[in-house]
Design a protein that fits this description.
about 300 residues; alpha/beta; five-stranded mixed beta sheet; two-stranded antiparallel sheet; 13 strands; about 15% helix; globular
Length: about 300
């Protein structure tokens, strides 16, 4: 039976049993108040803009992984795409199991966000150093705003990354909660910005399904961890690192001629937002393995 959310968010999903099928758009991210652990809604930073004409996948194997460089034609790429040096890049999937590429997964979530934003700015013809601007840097305020918007797009409630990897243990999401499993009791609570509106962040431990292979075989992507980030019982267990979807940002909106560069999205050929993966991958859906995610 088809069950739809009673109050659909900009990213709408159709729930079919335990399989979730991607819809359109993105939920605006939030800052999560560490002191009181309250949810605080922030304004939605992005809206889809005009449709684009992306390069279509090969007719003989539309789910075959293809390697791209940031300079390749046809952005956003409407096929399963990996960056040639496994560096965080818009419209591609980052394979955190690959430790031989230009970006080592051990650098963690904050560095991943900076790398992804830097790539997007460079592709837009803007200064990639804005991605790491802090302190007295004249671009510090802009860099902070853009990093927040990119974080929101990666961990958005109901987005594919949240469905596959979202969990509520800050310590495996890139922060520290001294009162939670894996936390450092000698350090303060820090890093709540890595969490979304429901208090979930990504799971950086090797507990996930081989979603690269599932996409290649045109099968639903699969969640293999609980809400607290632990491995599920067999047969819903996994031992791979994440494969993280990086949305295809509107490069014009990030360009140097903008008064205030910002994160926005385009539209795929079917009209859905490039905040979500390409339509063919959306159609595969996500098997939640019976895990109930609040807010979905």
């Amino acid at each position: 039976m088809m069950v739809r959310l009673s109050n659909p968010t900009p990213t709408q999903w159709a729930l079919i049993g335990t399989t979730v099928v991607l819809g359109i758009g993105l939920v605006g991210g939030t800052a999560y108040a560490a002191s009181e652990r309250k949810k605080k809604k922030l304004p939605r930073p992005t809206e889809p803009t005009e449709p684009v004409t992306p390069v279509q996948p090969p007719a003989d194997d539309p789910y075959a992984w293809q390697v791209v460089t940031p300079d390749d034609a046809g952005y956003p790429w409407e096929f399963p795409a990996l960056q040639n040096d496994n560096y965080p890049t818009p419209s591609t999937w980052f394979n955190a199991s690959d430790k031989t590429g230009a970006f080592h997964p051990s650098k963690g979530f904050d560095r991943y966000i900076e790398a992804l934003l830097g790539s997007a700015l460079a592709m837009a013809g803007n200064d990639p150093s804005i991605a790491t601007a802090k302190g007295q840097d004249p671009n510090a305020s802009l860099g902070k705003k853009l990093r927040r918007q990119v974080r929101e797009s990666i961990v958005a409630v109901g987005g594919v990354n949240d469905l596959l990897y979202g969990q509520d243990n800050l310590n495996i999401a890139g922060g520290n909660d001294p009162n939670a499993s894996g936390g450092d009791e000698n350090k303060p609570y820090v890093g709540a910005w890595v969490l979304n509106a429901e208090g979930r962040g990504l799971n950086w431990l090797p507990r996930h399904a081989d979603n690269l292979d599932l996409i290649q075989r045109a099968e639903p992507l699969k969640r293999t961890t609980s809400l607290v980030g632990r491995k599920l019982p067999s047969p819903n267990r996994g031992s791979r690192q994440m494969v993280i979807w990086a949305p295809a940002y509107d490069l014009v909106a990030l360009g140097p001629d903008q008064v205030v560069p910002t994160i926005k999205f385009l539209q795929w050929s079917d009209g859905s937002s490039t905040a979500d993966p390409p339509p063919r991958i959306q159609q595969l859906g996500v098997d939640l393995s019976g895990v109930d995610l609040p807010g979905i």
